[in-house]
UniProtKB/TrEMBL annotation:
It comes from Riccia sorocarpa. Keywords: ATP-binding, Nucleotide-binding, Transport. Residues 136-387 form the ABC transporter domain. It comes from the Eukaryota. PROSITE patterns: ABC_TRANSPORTER_1, ABC_TRANSPORTER_2. Gene3D superfamilies: P-loop containing nucleotide triphosphate hydrolases. GO terms for molecular function: ATP binding. InterPro entries: AAA+_ATPase, ABC_transporter-like_ATP-bd, ABC_transporter-like_CS, P-loop_NTPase. This is ABC transporter domain-containing protein. Pfam families: ABC_tran. SUPFAM superfamilies: P-loop containing nucleoside triphosphate hydrolases.
């Protein structure tokens, strides 16, 4: 029995049946758990290897699922967020940040009883897989609108330099998450950390956080009565003392970066849907070039390709990539925007524009993975979504 994790063995299994027991042995080098055996109801005895890093502090998460037929390693990652729990009614051995234990239940029971507890590990915890700075972290965020409980314990991190997609069924709270990250909406409970500092209110209450956050709305949200020039340069006209000619030059540069020329004097009503989205993108990336560009920047796009034909979508997807080339801004100058988040439903956008995905379902992140894993994961919720199937855990 592993000494380092006494809680695993001393605490009663949740919702336990009397015949379940769990044993483990220490890894000779790391001191972590190297092997876990689960003896569950009936004759089957399931065993599986576990990789622990022990030493009293477990930063790696391992979730194992023991069904009567087989034992599957569901996940082994370093995230604080809850893992793939929407899998099967079974026994789970979950090890994370000192909150290790043996759990039983179907997805609902697991999520409702244990996920909040899982996400309580400290923000300062080292991440062994990805040590890039965390720009924004949401921890156990809840948000309701009246009686509609939209976010129910959403936890995730966005790191410096990442291109992250947030996907999931309609109405699951993706745009709500973006607005909370952007500081336009306050969570009912849970925390949002910006560069490791807990946000206390909305963005309007904040002193400089060191992170510039841009949000490109789904509808492009251009001001109808302003020209493209005025829309793109809006922030600089309102909040900088730059001369008008200089703003005009920056607007021109930003529009050129999204492939638009000579549209400065047009009104939004004179643009196609794709052009409006590009203008919104230009508005998100424009900035006063006298400002210290060592300040980090995160741009968030809410369904940037919704309503566009496949080719126009490709143009916008590639633009999103290109304006975020690491180490360069939209005008090819050194330095700022390298991180972005895209909420999308479109497969092409998932494939082309982002590298990592967060899958939001019923108000929580139920799956995270690289874009390539989206097509191959066995997670039934993601599989159903990827295949557009009517059968599966997502109920319409
Ligand atoms: N300000 C608000 N007041 C009341 N209800 C709201 C508000 N904002 C969002 N909602 C509701 O919260 C739910 C989640 O909305 P949200 O836009 O975050 O979902 P989504 O996952 O982005 O959906 P979609 O993919 O369809 O755009 C919806 O039912 C929506 O009607």
């Amino acid at each position: 029995m592993a000494k380092i994790l006494p809680s695993v063995f001393s605490q009663p299994a949740r919702n336990s049946a009397p015949s379940v027991s769990c044993t483990a042995s220490s890894h000779p080098l790391s001191g972590g758990v190297s092997h876990v055996s689960l003896n569950s109801n009936g004759p089957q005895r399931v065993e599986w290897p576990a990789i622990g890093n022990g030493q009293g502090r477990v930063s790696t998460t391992h979730v194992f699922c023991a069904s009567s037929a087989s034992t599957t390693r569901l996940s082994s990652r370093h995230e604080d967020s809850p893992l793939i729990l929407n899998v099967c009614p079974a026994w789970f051995y979950a090890e994370r940040s000192g909150l290790s234990g043996l759990y039983h239940g179907n997805a609902k029971q697991i999520e409702e009883t244990d996920v909040r507890e899982f996400s309580q590990s400290r923000i300062t915890e080292e991440d062994e897989e990805d040590d890039r700075e965390v720009l924004i972290e949401c921890r156990d965020v809840y948000k309701s609108f009246g009686s509609k409980h939209i976010l129910r314990g959403a936890s995730f991190k966005i790191r410096d330099g990442e291109a992250v997609g947030i996907i999931g069924p309609s109405g699951t709270g993706k745009s709500t998450v973006l607005r909370i990250m952007a500081g336009l909406l306050a969570p009912d409970s849970g925390e949002v950390y910006v560069l490791g500092k807990k946000r206390k209110g909305l963005i309007s209450d904040e002193t400089l956080s060191g992170l510039r956050i841009g949000l490109v709305f789904q509808s492009a949200a251009l001001f109808d009565s302003l020209t493209v020039q005025e829309n793109v340069g809006f922030m600089l006209y309102e909040h900088s003392d730059l001369p008008r000619e200089k703003i005009a030059e920056l607007v021109r540069d930003s529009l050129a970066a999204v492939g638009l020329k000579g549209v400065e004097d047009r009104l939004p009503s004179e643009l196609s849907g794709g052009m409006k989205k590009r203008v919104a993108l230009a508005r998100a990336i424009i900035s006063d070039d006298r400002v210290d560009h060592s300040e980090r920047e995160l741009v968030m796009y809410d369904e940037p390709t919704a309503g566009l034909d496949p080719i126009a979508s490709t143009v916008v997807e590639d633009l999103i990539r290109s304006v975020h080339i690491n180490g360069q801004d939209a005008r090819g100058k050194p330095g700022k925007i390298a991180s972005y988040v895209v909420v999308t439903h479109q497969h092409s956008t998932i494939r082309r524009a982002v590298d990592r995905l967060l899958f939001l379902h019923e108000g929580r992140v139920v799956w995270e993975g690289k874009t390539a894993e989206f097509e191959t994961t066995s997670n039934p919720t993601v599989r159903q979504f990827a295949n557009g199937s009517l059968r599966g855990p997502i109920v319409y």
